[in-house]
Amino acid sequence: MRIAIVSNKRSGLGGMEAVFRTVMQELVRNQDEVKMFLMGGSLDKNWLRDLDCVEIGDQRTDNALRRRYSFTLPLFWEISQYQPDVIIGCDPNVVCYCKWMTRILNRKIPVGSWVHNELSTIWKVQLLKYADFHLSISNGIAEQIQAVVGSEAQGKIFVTHNPVDVEVLEVARPEVPTFLYIGRLENRQKRVRDLIDSLAKLEGEWKAIIVGDGPDRDEVYNLAQSYGINDRLEWLGWKKNPWAEIPRASALVLTSNFEGFPLVLLEAMARGIPCLSTDCQHGPAEIVIPEGNGWLVSVGDVEGMAGIMQLIVDQPEHLPDPQFVKESVNKFSITNVVDNIRGIIEQQLQMKVSS
C-alpha cells in the first residue's frame, strides 16, 4: 500500500511525533510505502530522521490567506505526484483539504481521520464529517467523533489506540520509594501543581524525579520550594530520551485534566513501572487496571492521590508485580496496533474499489 499521512505543523518534541515515527517505521517494515506531509513543517526535525517526509508551507507571512494557500496548493501538487492509495489526515482542516483534493483529482482515494487530541481542544471538529473513516486513539475520543459526526460515522470509527515498544528493559525499583513524572510542566491540562501538592503531604522517606519543561515550570518549582520539599525532587528538564535518564522508579504519576491517549502510561508499564493516574478523559481507564498495574483517582483529588502515594512510601513491598505490569500492555504492542491499522486501511480500500 502507498499511504500518505498529512499533519499540521509539529514541534517535534511530543508524544504525537513518537507515535507517527513508530507507526511509519512499522508500516515500512511491512513493505508498505509511507510518506508524511507536514503543513508548516516541524520545529525540531530529529524525529523525522530516516522517514520519508515533505515539509510544506510558509509560516513567516502574517497574511492568513497567503499562508493558507502556501499550504494547500503545494500539498495538492505533492499528493497528486505521490498518488497514494489512502490519505490519513491528523486534523479536521487537513481532512477537509484532502477530501476536496481527491474530488478534484477525480480519484477514489479513501481519506481517514487520525486525531491525537481531546476534541474539545481542536478547532473546526465538524470538518471530520469529510472523512471516509476514523482511526481513534481511545474509546472516549471515538465517542466524541460519533457525537460530532452523527449517524454518518456509523460503522466508520475504529479504535486503534497508540503503540508502545514492549521489548524494553525493566526499570528496577529503588530502595527509597521514588515517584516519576514525565511530561509538560503546565497546569491547564497536566495539572502539575496537583503533583506538587500531593508530594507535600507525604511523610517518611521518599524522592521524586520530574522530567520535562513548560510554561509553568517556575510556578511549580517555587511551589515545591515553598513546601520545603525541593531537596527531595530531581528536576531533569526536557529530555529527548527520558527513559535513558531513569535508573529506578517505584511508580509513575499522571495528574492530567484531560488526555488523548497518554502514551507515557504505556511506556512506564512496558518497563514494569505501575502508574498512578487521574481518571481523566480520555485513555487512563483503558490502560490502568486498578490494584493490578496501577491506580486511578478523580481529577483534582489531591488527597486521594497523596493517600495512594503514602501507601507506596509505607509499604513498597506491596507494589504490583512488575512482570504483570509489563504484560498488561502487550495488547498495545507496536505489532498489534499497526496490524490493526493496516487491516482497517485494507478494508477501506476494498470498499472503495467495490463502490
From TrEMBL:
* Xref: CDD domains: GT4_GT28_WabH-like
Q: Where does the Glycosyltransferase subfamily 4-like N-terminal domain start and stop, copy by copy?
A: 14-167
Q: Which InterPro entries does this one have?
A: Glyco_trans_1, Glyco_trans_4-like_N
Check the record and name the Pfam families matching this protein.
Glyco_transf_4, Glycos_transf_1
Q: Where is the signal peptide?
A: none
Domain of life, per the record? Bacteria
Residues annotated as domain Glycosyl transferase family: 175-318
Q: What Gene3D superfamilies does the record tag this protein with? A: Glycogen Phosphorylase B
PANTHER family reported in the protein's UniProt record: GLYCOSYLTRANSFERASE
What name goes with this protein? Glycosyl transferase
Source organism per entry reads Paenibacillus borealis
Task: Show the taxonomic lineage.
Answer: Bacteria, Bacillati, Bacillota, Bacilli, Bacillales
